[in-house]
Amino acid sequence: MKTLKELTRPNVWALKPYSSARDEYSGVEASVFLDANENPYHAPFNRYPDPLQKELKSLISPLKQVREEQIFLGNGSDEAIDLVFRAFCTPSVDNVVAIDPTYGMYQVCAEVNDVEYRKVLLDEHYQFSAEKLLAATDDHTKAIFLCSPNNPTGNNLCRGEIESLLHSFDGLVIVDEAYADFSSERSFLLDLDKYPNLIVLQTFSKAWGCAAIRLGMAFACPQIIGLFNKIKYPYNVNLLTQQEAISLLQDPVKVQDWIRILLQERTRLMDEFSKLSCCETIYPTDANFFLTKVTDAKKIYEYLVSKGIIVRNRTHVALCGNCLRITIGTSEENDTLLEALKGWV
Ligand SMILES: *Cc1c(COP(=O)(O)O)cnc(C)c1O
């Protein structure tokens, strides 16, 4: 691996971060806060939130079996994705490599940051080869984006290929595990100490049922987390979000129940769906959705919309011709979908 200094944008490496009032004061218990120009009325919303979300990290750390200094929290995983570009990629000089098809935000963030985005097509099983990805890199490739289970295909990427990439690539490897809670595969979080170039992304938006509060997690070595903390907005995770996540983390059994029910429903829905006349193929999935090739994606999508049912039409995505991506809903919602499609001819 290149040194972190070699991978980081020189301006970011040299930067002295903004120091907020909440950063500068820490230590003895204080009761009078006249340092941040806040209004003394309207507690608790009058106070700036903890910029480093220490209480929240202290609950995430044992759950994920990582150290607090290996955790970055952001305004969705999307913030962490954007920070990868802002921290490491010099606009119009550096590039990143990614599998194709995959989650659309990597490319959007690359383009916003004027960073070249190099796509490498998956094979017919939606798998990648480390060798092919490496062949697309050059001296200016700062990062490779992987997503496992992948969106929109649903499958886990081959673990051996990811490991081989982590060993052989001299830049950063991002493994987006937004759907890891639904997967039978072991998380790369457990290998964080083994790979200094690994960044694992997870989120509260899927299994944790908290898409609305915008809370994403990035896990990496403390040096990378330190860089993210240096350039993030000082108060990037608001108080309401921190409070809601803390309360949910005190009841992890609830989340495990949701996951168990959704996995049961996934099996049932896929089973029933495969019997429909419109279904040509269902691809294997380790996520809370599945990709299916249907007889006519556009027409079926529009038919479902007319019935008030929205699925994701992926027909224009690489390797996904005539494919729909279907999220697992409640048992009732899944039945509504099945009933509607039985009326499709
Ligand atoms: C849904 C999803 C996310 C979640 O993003 P947030 O900004 O945390 O809501 C991240 N990565 C992938 C691949 C996703 O599908």
**How do the helices and strands follow one another from N- to C-terminus?**
HHHHEHEHEHEHEEEHHHEEHEEH
Please state the overall shape, judged from the principal axes of the Cα atoms. Answer: globular
Structural class comes to: alpha/beta
Main sheet strand line-up: 1-7-6-5-4-2-3
Give an overview of the whole structure:
The chain has 345 residues and is an alpha/beta fold. 36% of the residues lie in helices and 16% in strands. It contains 13 helices and 11 strands. The strands form 2 sheets. The protein has a 7-stranded mixed sheet, sandwiched between helices. The chain has a 4-stranded antiparallel sheet with strand order 8-9-11-10, with helices on one face. β2 (95-100), α6 (105-112) and β3 (116-121) form a beta-alpha-beta unit. The longest helix is centred in the C-terminal third of the chain and has 22 residues, at 252-273. The radius of gyration is 22 Å and the shape is globular. The structure holds pyridoxal-5'-phosphate (PLP). Residues 76-78, 103, 147, 151, 176, 178, 203, 205-206, 211, 216 line the site of pyridoxal-5'-phosphate.
List the SSEs and their pairings:
Layout: H1 4-7, H2 10-14, H3 21-24, H4 54-64, E1 71-74, H5 77-88, E2 95-100, H6 105-112, E3 116-121, H7 130-135, E4 141-147, H8 159-168, E5 172-176, E6 198-203, E7 216-219, H9 222-231, H10 239-249, H11 252-273, E8 279-282, E9 289-294, H12 297-306, E10 312-313, E11 323-327, H13 331-342
Parallel strand pairs: 2-3, 2-4, 4-5, 5-6
Antiparallel strand pairs: 1-7, 6-7, 8-9, 9-11, 10-11
Helix pairs in contact: 4-10, 5-6, 11-13
Pyridoxal-5'-phosphate binds next to α5.
